[in-house]
Amino acid sequence: MGPGRSARVFAIAVTVLTVLSSGYFTVSGLLAPGILVPGGDAAAPRAFAAYMAARSIVLLGGLALFAALRAWRPLALVLALNAGVQSVDTVIGATRHEVAQTLGPACFVLLLGAAAWSLARAPLPRHAV
């Protein structure tokens, strides 16, 4: 047994949405960080954006890989890890009093968390116990 069809479809949809939206910010941060934040085109912010992009690429790559392989347990873990990242992003947005940078990640926390939970709560296959 594994996760039900609706849990799998929901997790795949959340994965695609996350890869597209976070991928956009990752690429934007690499190519033109000044578009995302004022002063982002200076050397230090560009280097920082590159380091952050490396981490995003690994997490987003894991999401895409596990979704493509239909590896539901690992996908649930990476969805939960991404929810953790978005939680920190929510706190950062809130401390800076930026509504969009607070509400956007908060919505992703809910979606990613729900997708991870829906996959993780499914019983393990009999041979895996």
UniProtKB/TrEMBL annotation:
Highest taxon in the source lineage: Bacteria
Ranges annotated as spanning the membrane: 9-36, 48-68
Keywords: Membrane, Transmembrane, Transmembrane helix
Protein name per its UniProtKB record: DUF4267 domain-containing protein
Species: Nonomuraea rhodomycinica
